[in-house]
Design brief:
The chain has helices at 16-36, 87-97, 129-137, 167-172, 206-221, 228-253, 268-274, 280-297, 302-323; strands spanning 39-40, 64-67, 74-78, 99-103, 118-122, 187-189, 199-201. It is an alpha+beta fold. Residues 198-313 form the DUF5623 domain.
C-alpha cells in the first residue's frame, strides 16, 4: 500500500491481459470489503472446528476466510467450479456438521460467471449469515477484463496517485520488479533479473572453507543435541550458504560431482567428524568456529548478519535444551 488511494504490485505481469485480470481481482476484493465490512481473517483455524480437520466441505475450492472486525464474527467464502453436481453432498455435509452454506447471487471474487460464490458459517457461532448475504447480493456487477474500459501502454514511468504526496510514498510507488539490481560496496545480487531482492556478501569463503562449513552444519543437523527449532535455522543457513558457494565457484566447477556433497549428503570424512561431537559443548564450540569463519571471509552486511543470527539462535536453543535436561553433558 502506497497511500489510501494507491496499491502497487511488485511483480511484472507477463502480458497486458494478465495485468488487467489481476487488477480486476483486486478491485473485486476491495468491492467485497467495502460492501460487507469484512477483512481477510489472519487466523482461519478459529473458524473451522476440529471435527472438520479430516472432512472438508465437498467440492471446496478457492476458499477464503473473513472476519468482521467490529464483532469478531467469522465467515468462510467458497468459490468452486461446477458446484451443482455436488449440491446434495454439500447440503448433507452442512446438515451433518451444523453449518449453513448458502449460495449468493453475486457472481463472485475469484472468477465471476465461472465459479459460484457460497457463504458458509458454523451455525453454532452466532454469525449473522443472512445479513452478510443481503450485503453481498446487493453489490454492483463485479469488474471483469471483458468490460475493461481503460487503457495502458508500455512505459517505465511510475504512476503516482493524488494522495501519494510524501517522498516516501513516491519512492514506494515504484514497482520493485522495475528496479535493476546493482552491486553495492559489500553485497551483490544473486542475479541481475529485475526485481531481484536476494543478495550475498562480496568475498569468498573458498572451497575449503565451504567444505568445513558444510561439515559442521551437517554434523549439527544430524546431532542428537540440536532441537527441532535449531534444526530449522541450521537448514536455512545451509541452503543459503550452498547458494553462496555455487555463485562463488561459478557454473563450470559446480557441476563437479564432489561439490554436490559439500552441504548435502555425507562423505566418510563427514561421518568421522560427526563422531567427534560427543557433547552439546562440542557442538556449540564448532558452531562458534563456523561463525568466526564467516566473519573472517565476508564483510559486515545484512546477508551475513542474517546467517550469523541463525547460528546464534541455534546455539542458544542448544544451550537451553541442555539446561532443561538434568545432568546433560
Amino acid at each position: 500500500m502506497v497511500a489510501e488511494d494507491h496499491f502497487v504490485c511488485d511483480s511484472i505481469a507477463p502480458s497486458q491481459d494478465y495485468a488487467r485480470a489481476g487488477l480486476c481481482t483486486a478491485a473485486r476484493s476491495l468491492q467485497f470489503i467495502e460492501a460487507t465490512g469484512l477483512l481477510p481473517d489472519r487466523n482461519p483455524r478459529k473458524l473451522e472446528p476440529r471435527s472438520l480437520s479430516g472432512e472438508i466441505l465437498p467440492g471446496r475450492d478457492h476458499a477464503t476466510f473473513w472476519v468482521d472486525p467490529s464483532n469478531g464474527q467469522r465467515f468462510f467464502i467458497d468459490e468452486p467450479y461446477e458446484s451443482r453436481a455436488l449440491e446434495a453432498e454439500r447440503t448433507a455435509w452442512a446438515d451433518c456438521h451444523g453449518w449453513r452454506v448458502e449460495k449468493a447471487s453475486w457472481p463472485g471474487i475469484y472468477r465471476p460467471y465461472e465459479c459460484d460464490l457460497y457463504v458458509a458459517v458454523d451455525g453454532r457461532s452466532g454469525s449473522d449469515i443472512d445479513s452478510l448475504l443481503r450485503s453481498v447480493n446487493s453489490m454492483a456487477d463485479p469488474s471483469i477484463t471483458e468490460n475493461w474500459d481503460g487503457e495502458s501502454t508500455a512505459s517505465w514511468e511510475t504512476f503516482v496517485s493524488p494522495m501519494a504526496t510524501t517522498a516516501q510514498a513516491k519512492r514506494r510507488a515504484k514497482c520493485k520488479g522495475m528496479i535493476y539490481p546493482e552491486a553495492s560496496l559489500k553485497t551483490v545480487p544473486y542475479n541481475f533479473a529485475r526485481g531481484t531482492s536476494q543478495r550475498r556478501p562480496i568475498g569468498e569463503l573458498g572451497i575449503k572453507g565451504h567444505i568445513e562449513a558444510g561439515r559442521i552444519i551437517k554434523a549439527a543437523i544430524g546431532s542428537e543435541f540440536a532441537p527441532a527449532a535449531g534444526y530449522m535455522r541450521l537448514g536455512s543457513l545451509r541452503a543459503d550458504l550452498e547458494d553462496w558457494f555455487c555463485l562463488e565457484i561459478g557454473p563450470e566447477q559446480r557441476q563437479r560431482p564432489e561439490f554436490f556433497q559439500v552441504y548435502y549428503g555425507e562423505t566418510d570424512e563427514d561421518k568421522a567428524f560427526r563422531q567427534t561431537l560427543r557433547t552439546r559443548a562440542d557442538l556449540i564450540a564448532w558452531l562458534q568456529s563456523l561463525k568466526g569463519k564467516l566473519l573472517e571471509a565476508y564483510p559486515d552486511c545484512a546477508p551475513l548478519r542474517r546467517q550469523l543470527g541463525r547460528i546464534e539462535m541455534a546455539m542458544s536453543m542448544i544451550e537451553k535444551a541442555n539446561a532443561s535436561v538434568p545432568g546433560a553433558p
